[in-house]
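Field reference: sequence -> structure
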Amino acid sequence: QVQLVESGGGLVQAGGSLRLSCAASGRTFSFISHHMGWFRQAPGKEREIVAAISWSVGHTYYADSVKGRFTISRDNAKNTVYLQMSSLKPEDTAVYYCAGRRDGPVYSENDVQYWGQGTQVTVSS
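Structure field:
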């Protein structure tokens, strides 16, 4: 079993910043071999990809809506993936989910093999 535990969500004013963390663990889990990503789901909307990062540090992906404002990174020594969010907007309000996949990129909800529980991010106007 693979466990993903998110932290760092909360309430922030528009224009502010937050950093989300996702710590991965498992009896036979090899974090460095897994692709990781962040998704979000706002009330009444479908879950959507926010950012993704491969086992290679040189490969990242960002949704157009967050490009230039969010940064995904990973620390393989700590089995942790981060999402640094800056210049936050009210439309960024959503539950944010950490996700993982062993055998390929995480660009779509259908790609995901492991999900975190989600953490609430609320941006006030």
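Note: The chain has no helices and eleven strands.
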